[in-house]
Amino acid sequence: MNKIIFAALIALSTSSAFAAEKIDVAVKGLVCGFCAQGIEKTFNAMPAVENVKVSLKEKHVMIGTRTGATLPDTEITKALEAAGFTVLKIDRKNL
After folding, report:
1. Does pTM surpass 0.85?
2. Could you count the other beta carbons within 10 Å of the beta carbon of residue 52?
C-alpha cells in the first residue's frame, strides 16, 4: 500500500513540474501600445514562451509557457526592467 501511495505522489509531483504555466506579471510604467508591442516581441522570442498578452488597462503581462519549459522570475524581471518597466508582482498557475 505504501508503495502505491509513494508512486502516486511521485507521479503527481513530476507531472506538475512539466506542466505549462500561466504567468501573470503586474507591471508599473506600462502606458502605450508601443510598450505592449515591445514586451510581446521580447517574450515571444524566448523559447519557453508559448504566448504573451499585454493588458494596458490592467497593467499586466500574461505569459503562457510551453509544456515542460520554465521561465524563471529573474528572467522575466530582467527582460521587463531592461525595457524600462518595474515588476510589481509575479503570480503563477499550472495549467
Report:
1. no
2. 19
